[in-house]
């Protein structure tokens, strides 16, 4: 994300979340005035936010149409997840040799929050569950990257992780799929805590690629099967 002032950064985060949560669908126009009215912001910070989102690849600025939510082909998804798998695998390897007890505690907290989100889904609170699960998942992966103590790698991963795609996977996953995802978190955590870089890296890569496979399978389902969040 490019450097922005406070209002522009707020606009960036609000629009990014709306894209992630499907409020702004792929291919839809992002009209500055309407977005400003939606979030009680002037057009200037909205315009700056859209430029930053375009730099991140979440928005495309088209001639005669303006800002449009980016769409991704199957090839785009495969390329992005391959890149992410390699980068996060390296982060897990580095974390296994550099992460201290505080970092492992952060992983444990994220895993516990993920479990709590799964329980919310069982109670029928799907929106709250989805937000808690995605926040916990983000916290886990960010803790791994932080534990790697590799500044350049952290910067690269900011652009390699497509939050809307991650959110889409969690929106439609079953309880069993969610439990499998958090099981991988536990295994990666254990490998990092044990100081086993090769194992940590291999587990992280497999975890990311399973996310890719889930997303590609989701895109191939009939629309009616993806309209509701599975509990």
Question: What brief labels describe this structure?
Answer:
globular; two-stranded antiparallel ribbon; mainly alpha; single chain; 231 residues; Arc Repressor Mutant, subunit A
Describe the structure.
The protein is mainly α. The protein has two domains: about 5-70, Winged helix-like DNA-binding domain superfamily/Winged helix DNA-binding domain (Arc Repressor Mutant, subunit A, Orthogonal Bundle), CATH 1.10.10.10; about 75-220, GntR ligand-binding domain-like (Four Helix Bundle (Hemerythrin (Met), subunit A)), CATH 1.20.120. It is about 75% helix and about 5% strand. The chain contains ten helices and two strands; from the N terminus they run H-H-H-E-E-H-H-H-H-H-H-H. The chain has helices at about 5-20, 30-40, 45-55, 75-100, 100-120, 125-150, 150-160, 165-170, 175-195, 195-220; strands at about 60, 65-70. The protein has a two-stranded antiparallel ribbon with strand order 1-2. The chain is globular, with a radius of gyration of 18 Å. Residues about 225-230 have low confidence and may be disordered.
């Amino acid at each position: 994300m490019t450097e922005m002032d406070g209002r522009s950064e707020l606009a960036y985060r609000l629009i990014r979340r709306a894209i992630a949560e499907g409020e702004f669908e792929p291919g839809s126009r992002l009209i500055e005035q309407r977005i400003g009215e939606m979030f009680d912001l002037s057009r200037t910070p909205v315009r700056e936010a859209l430029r930053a989102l375009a730099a991140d690849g979440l928005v495309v600025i088209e001639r005669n149409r303006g800002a449009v939510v980016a769409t991704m082909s199957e090839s785009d998804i495969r390329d992005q997840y391959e890149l992410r798998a390699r980068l996060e695998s390296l982060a897990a390897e580095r974390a296994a040799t550099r992460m201290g007890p505080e970092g492992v505690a952060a992983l444990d907290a994220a895993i516990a929050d993920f479990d709590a989100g799964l329980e919310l889904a069982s109670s029928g609170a799907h929106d709250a569950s989805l937000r808690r699960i995605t926040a916990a998942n983000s916290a886990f992966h960010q803790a791994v990257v932080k534990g790697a103590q590799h500044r350049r790698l952290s910067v690269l991963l900011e652009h390699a992780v497509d939050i809307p795609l991650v959110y889409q996977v969690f929106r439609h996953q079953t309880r069993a799929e969610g439990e499998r995802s958090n099981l991988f978190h536990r295994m990666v955590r254990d490998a990092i805590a044990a100081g086993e870089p090769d194992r940590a890296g291999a587990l992280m890569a497999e975890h990311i690629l399973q996310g890719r496979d889930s997303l590609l399978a989701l895109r191939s389902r009939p629309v009616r099967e993806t309209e509701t969040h599975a509990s």
